[in-house]
Amino acid sequence: MYDYIKGQVTRVTPEHITLEQGGIGWLIMTPNPYAFHKTEEIQQVFTYLHVREDIQLLLGFKSLEQRELFKKLITVSGIGPKGALAILASGVPSQVIGAIEREDETFLVQFPGVGKKTARQMILDLKGKLYDLFNAMDMPDEDITLLTMAENGALDEAILALEALGYSQRELTKVKPKLEKEELDTEGYMKMALRLLLKQN
Fold it and tell me: Where is region (Domain III) located (predicted)?
């Protein structure tokens, strides 16, 4: 129904952004809200409307390729919209696709909410169906402005966002000391934390 919306990002939370367009504030759930920045500049968000009897969710993505991979993931039994968002937030799409094509269950079960059964189902349902669509896919690089934790609580925001994606306090406690040694913005902390979390599993 909606292909994309262009507007100003007026709010960023651990689970969603608010995109104002034409006097309407659209609440949009995204894989990584901190990939978007609160600014007066007009930003384009590729959207997907998920409708069930009891809920309507508007989901948004930085790129068309991200959205198309999301649509593929939610066709897999056992993966809902929130699970697909967590996978996209935790891994680079090209790595997810590569793992599916290699039948690398060990890599896939590292994602929040993905057990052996779901990983096997991802492989059965999607292997051979992704390369043509995502041959040149990669996550867009974001301009990162270095800010200290004292100035913006970036690390705390990143930890909250990771908890919203399904990571436990125990997992996050293991990687937090390494994060505290860096001086990054929220998105930078999230990207680093996700790399560390995937390595430790």
Answer: 154-201
Q: Report pLDDT for 141.
A: 39
Residues in the chain: 201
Helix (H) or strand (E) holding 55: none
- Let me know if residue 77 belongs to a domain: yes
Instruction: List, for the chain, all residue ranges whose pLDDT scores fall below the cut of 50.
Output: 136, 138-152
Please name the residues in contact with 129: beta carbons below 8 A apart, sequence gap of 6 or more: 72
- Name the 3-class secondary structure at 25: strand
Would you state the structure tokens that stand for residue 134, as one six-digit string? 């995502």
How far is the C-alpha of 5 from the C-alpha of 14, rounded, in Å?
20
- Counting Cα atoms < 13 Å in the Cβ hemisphere of 82 gives 11
What's the CATH number where 26 sits?
A: 2.40.50.140
Which of 150, 152, 153, 142 is closest to 188 using CA atoms?
Answer: 142
Q: What amino acid occupies position 181? A: K
Nearest to 155 by CA among 123, 134, 196, 185: 185
Specify the pTM. Answer: 0.65
- The span from the CA of 81 to the CA of 52, in Å, is 11
* 56 found inside a domain: yes
Residue 124 shares a structural domain with residue 69: yes
The secondary element (H helix, E strand) that includes residue 56 is: strand 56-61
